[in-house]
Input
Amino acid sequence: MATRKLYAGAKLRETRQRLALTQKDFAAKLGVSLPYLNQMENNNRPVSTTVVLALAQEFGFDVTELGSGDSARLVSDMREAMADPVFADNAPPMADLRLAASNAPALARAFLDLHRAYRETRERLASLDEALGRDDSRMQTSPWDEVRDFFHYCDNYIDAVDHAAEHFAARAAPGTPMAAHAAAALDRAGVSIAHADTPRLRQFDPASRILTLSSRAAPETRAFQMLLQLALLNHDPLIEATLDLARFQSDAARAIAKIGLANYFAGAALMPYGAFLAAAQDTRHDLELLAHRFGASIEQVAHRLSTLQRPGAKGVPFFFVRVDQAGTITKRHSATHLQFARFGGACPLWNVHRAFETPGRFLRQLAETPDGVRYISLARDVSKPGGSFGAPIRRFAIALGCEVRHASALVYADDLDLTNPRAFEPIGISCRICERTTCHQRSVPPLERRLSVDADRRDVLPYTVE
Output
């Protein structure tokens, strides 16, 4: 098999700029000529072995970072955006999208922001007749989507917050449950904890310094909420500094991201990086064992597994997604080649949608995407009861998975026939960009392909994709 050449111009350029080095100085430290470095930064040449070794030895750079990054995500996101009918006659080829993602990632992100603003404004105008007369009807990114993209392009890993949470957890006495450790820390901060029979999970009164938790919530939820409040109180400067670096476009996005970072701290403290990574490897990623060991929920464990992307100590690259009953994606992240649709729901052939039919059970699926990459996917419902008769039940399902090449690290891969190509179900990303022409579950035609409609013929679909 031919060795795959590594083109990582954007990563090299980002590394040099972060070190505040000129191209001349950077080239000298890497032991290459200035023209050669310039060619590598512009992806005219692949990164040589000499440069890879120099990056590791001279700067302590995690060379695995060169092979990862935003390129696959950007290509997937741009391809979906280009499937919009507005680009029907001018959609660029995939080769151009790959070049833009690898050579000009900032330009690619700017294009995605512009398309998202266009789409959201169009939807707003379609649903609100008075939007044209409102002062705030200007094109503006949705705060929720802006925050979601922030975590998405950070690989769902926030290094400073993760280390702070791990440091906090390390101060717990051996054998002390994290809930007790969090309660003691809140007590030292002058916060009293009360419990009330209420559906509201958490309520903090700054004046009385009383934190009220719902007695209806599960123990792991109460522990998580204590840690979240602790992050807001004791680690506010760190969170604010992280928000400053993110440069959100609105106060709403910044406020949403602040809660997101506090949530991140809580999960990272409940499941400290080093200990959790070791336990995940030891249990072969058995979610139930990990949930029991760390006093967390199944969803919390699955989400945490998707964040194990610390440079130099990475875990298995997982994708993680949560969907509601309508198939709408409410949480998403992928450290794999599998990328999720930015708009609409996930592929109906994916096992995450069947999880609602088998509450309390794990479903396993071997799947193959149109690009030929094969995955093992684990799905389970994580519905949340309302806590009282008549209270609404929040119904969700999660999926966690990785490429089949990591299957030996998962207990859930045992007894599956990984060598049989027919064992892998064909799934896609989104109907409008899926290349499969004969899918029986297709809801809309692919926007990049021609259609042929024959009134005298009716197959599974009322048209043929050419």
Remarks:
- The longest helix spans residues 105-127.
- Residues 129-139 have pLDDT under 50 and may be disordered.
- The chain is about 40% helix and 10% strand.
